[in-house]
Amino acid sequence: MKMHQKVSKKRIGYVYVVRCLMIISTLLTCSLVIFLIGYVLVKGLPNITWELLSTKPSYITGKIGILPDILNTVYIIIATLCFVLPIGVGAAIYLSEYAKNKKIVAMIEYAAEILSGIPSIIFGLVGMLFFCQFLNMKTSLLAGALTLVIMNLPTIMRTTQESLKTVPQSDREGALGLGAGKWRMIRTVVLPSCIDGILTGCILSVGRILGESAALLFTAGFAHTIHGFLSGLMNSGSTLTVALYFYAKENGEFEIAFAIAAILMILTLIINVGVTLIQRYYKKRRTL
Question: CA–CA separation, 211 vs 213, rounded Å?
Answer without folding.
Answer: 7
